[in-house]
Design brief:
Length: 359
Amino acid sequence: MISTFHLPSMTSRAASRPHTYGRFRMTRPPYLAVSTHFFVRTCPHYRRAGNLRSARRDDTNKRYGATGAHDMSKTPVTVLGLGDMGTALARALLGGGHPTTVWNRTANKAEALAPEGALTAATAGEAVAASRLVVVCLLDYDSVRQVLGPLGEALAGRTVVNLTNGTPRQARDLAAWAAGHGAEYIDGGIMAVPPMIGTPAAFLLYSGSPAAFTAHRSVLDLFGESHHLGEDHGRAPLYDLALLSAMYGMFSGVLHAYALVRSDGVAAGDVAPLLGRWLTAMSGAVDGYAQRIDSGDHATGVVSTIAMQSAAFGNFTGSARDQGISPELIAPIGALMARRVAAGHGHEDLTGLVELLTA
C-alpha cells in the first residue's frame, strides 16, 4: 500500500534535504509519498509524534496536482528508464492515478518527477520490488540486459513490459530469459513520439502472454491505443520495425525533395504544402500494394509499369548531380528497378521489387 502523509513542519536545515525511507529517496516537507509499511517501521517522526494521519484529497492535489494524485485501488507500476519517452510513459501513469515508482541511471531525471507524484527508487532493484508491473524503456536491449540481468530472481511473479526498440530475435531471447526467472514478459513497440503519449494519436504494439496483456490492458491503454499481436514475443518488434522502415523511407524522400529545391534557391516551406498533399494522395496505394504482394500478382491492372518508371529514374539521380546534391537517399530503389526490368518483369508494378528483397 502506498499512501500520502502530512508531517509537522520542520525548521532545521536537515528538513529540506533528501532522505531515504525504506526503499525510496525523497525530500521530507511538506508531504511524503512512501510505503505505509516502511514509514511506520522506520520514520522517527512517527515514533516521536505518534500522530500519523492521511492527507485529505485537497492536500494531495496541492502536492501532486489534480491529475497526479494516487488512486490506491489502481495497479502500482514501476518505470525503468526516463529518457523523453520513459518520462512521457511515467507521466501518463501518474495522470491515470497509478502509484508510480521511477528509476533512471541519472537520478535527477527521476527526482524531476517527484513533484508530480512519482516515487523515486535509488536502485533498479528497489524500483522492481515496488511493483508487480514493470515497464522498461531504455536505449537498447544491451541496456535492458545490463539493468535486468543482475535482478534475476527478483522478477519472479512480475510482469515485465519492455517498450525498448529491438529486433524480433532479441525479444524472443529476452522472453526466454524472463520466463526462466519466473516472470511474464510482454514486448512492445511504441508508434508515437513522446508528446503523443496518452493522446488518441498514439498506438502501441504488444506481443506475448495474452493473459498478462489482458490483466494489464487498462494500464497500457493509458499510453495509447493498444494492439496485441499474439503470443510470439517477436511479433511486436517485427511490426514496429516494419512501420518505422516505411517512415524512414518516406523521410528519405522528403529530405531529398527539400535538398533538391533548396539547391535552386527555393525555400523548403514553399514546397511543403504541395509535398504534404502529394504524399497524402500516394498513401492510398498502401492497401493496394499489400493486396498485390499477398497475391503474388504484380502485373494485373498495372497503371504505371516498372519499365516506364525505371526509364525515368535517371532524371532523379541526374538532376541531383546537376544541382550539386547527392542522390544517395533515393538511388537504391533505382538500381532495384533496373534489375527487375532486366530480369523480364518490366510489365509489372513497382511491388515486384519485394521479390528481389526476399529472394
